[in-house]
Known about the structure:
Elements: E1 4-7, H1 13-25, H2 44-52, E2 56-60, E3 66-75, E4 78-86, H3 95-106, E5 112-118, H4 122-130, E6 134-138, E7 142-148
Parallel strand pairs: 4-5
Antiparallel strand pairs: 1-2, 2-3, 3-4, 5-7, 6-7
Helix pairs in contact: 1-2
Amino acid sequence: MNLQFMKAGTSDALVLTGISRLAFNSDTEVGSACPGGPPGYQSVPFHVRMARMNHLFKLVDENGVILGGAILFCQGDTLNVGRIFIDPQHFRKGYGIFMMREIERMFPEAKVFTLDTPVWNTRTNAFYTGLGYSEVKRDRDFVYYSKKR
């Protein structure tokens, strides 16, 4: 597996939006009542804005094909994983694990990594706990996770 995880540019926004739409709409298979996702998940202007603000990242294979993406927010010693997404045709190939490990490696200044995911999403809740993230709280809609270095 020869993958690279790197900052995405505005020219990547269209492809990343399409992958985001497919990935989040696939959540109907793991508990979502209907297709949908986080704010802006299917908006090209949102992804362009995230790229311009240096929050948008992409996962590419050895041929430069974009397989997934992430939106990350670093503030001081905390990195918030706003979202990660993989094209559903590449689920269960280890790409999400690779991406999360790269996120942790790329931000050595981060002492704490935070994220949240819907309560109903059995796939992502198992994924994050499997990577060593601990639940810090939950409300009716979301489980909030944290991982310290």
